Amino acid sequence: MTYKDLVYSALRFFFSFMSKLPKEHQFIDLSDYGRPIAKLIANSLKNTSFTPIHVTIAFIISGCIAIYCMIIGYYWLAAFFLIFKSILDAADGELARVKQRPSYTGRYLDSVADIILNALFLSTIWYITTISYWFCLLAFVGLQLQGTLYNYYYVILRNRFDGDTTSRVFEDKTPIALDGEKQQHVTILFSLYKLLYGVFDKVIYTLDKNADKGTILPNWLMTSVSTFGLGFQLLVIAILLVLGLKAMIIPFFLLYTFMIFVFVGIRKIFY
User: Fold this and answer.
1) Number of domains composing the chain
2) What is the rounded CA–CA span in Å between residue 247 and residue 199?
3) Could you tell me the residue range of the domain that residue 109 belongs to?
4) What pLDDT, on the 0 to 100 scale, is given for residue 10?
């Protein structure tokens, strides 16, 4: 076995703790680096009164602390809390799994919190730099479209191989509340989800409406698309902040958005 093979095997072993897919279909998900720690957090909370909603609230608080640290110029701390937010973002779902309490309330609260925090993160970066507000707005749109494409392809895989029960390829109808949650909460949060994410879902679906009818996407392509995941996006922001390159954050996401057309093109032509 070559050195390259050893490195790849080690990466596959590490990232196998992270995938929600069956083992034979797992890929190296670069956005899900927080999953191993998230599993430890979830297991430590399994027999406590803490719920997945509590963990979601914790990642909202972590995101807000990161914003405050950016404003006052404590970029190392901001980076830490961005990464911690990403870890907790994985931990709420893990806690739902270990407690065997899947929840549409938690699923939509998580997503609504994510998009609001994303808007606040980029607005804060606009505030502490000289970047145009319009570039900031375009970067936010690009950031969300990137994440939507990643989720679109990922959910198709998870649904195909029974890797998930609360995520759907198309979020069109209000789901029926599961045991232990109120329909009113699900309905309100789903309405917010549709309001905030609906346009991004429609754009990505328009770009690649037949993705669910194609062949299984290869691991290398899913790994590449995983750089569109929120965890990886927050990691990029954290790294650029620490390196003193805060002015490059918004231009990076603007330019990287063009990779959407590259990935969609590859999917349409080859798969």
Assistant:
1) 1
2) 28
3) 28-270
4) 46
